[in-house]
Amino acid sequence: MATRLLDFPTPVLRGSELESGRAGRRGGGQGHVKLGHTWVSCCCPDPVVPARRTRSSEKPDDTWRFDLQKIVPASQRVRVRATPSMPFSSPQSPFVPKQEKFFRRCTQRNFVPQSRDTPPKRDTGIANEKDWGINLLNEHVNESGTNDDGSTWYRESGENLGENGYRCRWTRMGGRSHDDSSEWKETWWEKSDWNGYKELGVEKSGRNAEGDSWWETWNEVLFQDEWSNLARIERSAQKQAKSGSENAGWYEKWWEKYDAKGWTEKGAHKYGRLNEQSWWEKWGEHYDGRGSVLKWTDKWAETEIGTKWGDKWEEKFFAGIGSRQGETWHVSPSDNRWSRTWGEEHFGNGKVHKYGKSTTGESWDIVVDEETYYEAEPHYGWADVVGDSTQLLSIQPLERPPGFFPNLDFGSIPPPPRSPPPDDSPDSTTM
């Protein structure tokens, strides 16, 4: 099945409802990690918790709903024609697997790199390392070739060394069609040093004859926090795609951070455009490992004629006590504005204070008997990320000479770079 470059639900205004997709999440796994010469075990519980969405935040998070006919006078209403979500049009799918497109005639010795490069998909979060299939070559190679159909390919690998036992092993590969209208590149790397720092990463990009282009990078890092001395694992991903035939494209940045005491931070920034409509989304989650949690989401969109709308909410809880608040808003091309704000105060005794108001005169202020529900711990935490990072943890640093002690002066020595610098691996291309 051909992969769509813009395979995502466009947040368009359909009648009185603004719809938006959301990403799923994975869990599972547990274990311990060796940092330097020390084994660090997971010391945070990993309970089975309910679904992430709370009843109180379900409405503002899952759907952006507001009835324009009820909240905006007829004289101020604006009709916005929805643009359906669609892939980039092409008479022939530009995303034929690279094995067929570039390498239909491989040698029996399989010297030709078999790329799995395809455009990234939206709202898929941060992939696990096993989904990438990173397999670095042990020997240094520099080879290239031309296939019978005129397409070319290349593969290179190497190793760069630095101070304090720093080592970066990398492999780069790519290919292009005979007329240079299509091209793909992919780079893998792993890094380590004598302080226990380890990194695994991928960068890939491509373009096709229709002018569509894409770029994606992913990495995960293990290191020792300089303040707490706890082991930490951080994962991140960036994805981007652009259309060559219309004004359309999207960009996403995702990150996750974990430490061995249960501290967790997750977030994402997203942007998309399809012809006359643009939209943005930001969200974050923070768990301190002791029961305190902060979550927030901010989404907004606009059209070229000047219509704007959005929704945001935030929740803070600790020991059953906390608050939620949010706002939904809309601006017409004539600058007529509407908004509704709402809030909840949870006292931890079964009582909840709910209040809110809107620019059309709505208001409420009540106290109700209601159970307080929230997630005090992430459903995917330290034990899960350790279990899903076996390749990262298995990276072997250079053998340390007898009598050598690594420099642990965190205040003066910066950590190794988080992405491959130009002298570590071949230059990468961003769209």
Features:
starch binding, Inactive purple acid phosphatase-like protein, mainly beta, single chain, flat, transit peptide, 431 residues, 3-stranded antiparallel beta sheet, plastid, 16-stranded antiparallel beta sheet, Alpha-glucan_binding_chloro
Report on the structure:
With 431 residues, the protein is mainly β. The chain has a domain of 241 residues. 6% of the residues lie in helices and 41% in strands. It contains 5 helices and 21 strands. The strands form 3 sheets. Strands 6-7-8-9-10-11-12-13-14-15-16-17-18-19-20-21 form a 16-stranded antiparallel β-sheet. Strands 1-2-5 form a 3-stranded antiparallel β-sheet. Strand 6 and strand 7 form a beta hairpin. The longest helix has 8 residues. The chain starts with 12 loop residues before the first strand and ends in a 38-residue tail after the last helix. The N terminus and C terminus are likely disordered. This is Inactive purple acid phosphatase-like protein. Belongs to the ESV1 family. It is found in: Plastid, Chloroplast stroma.
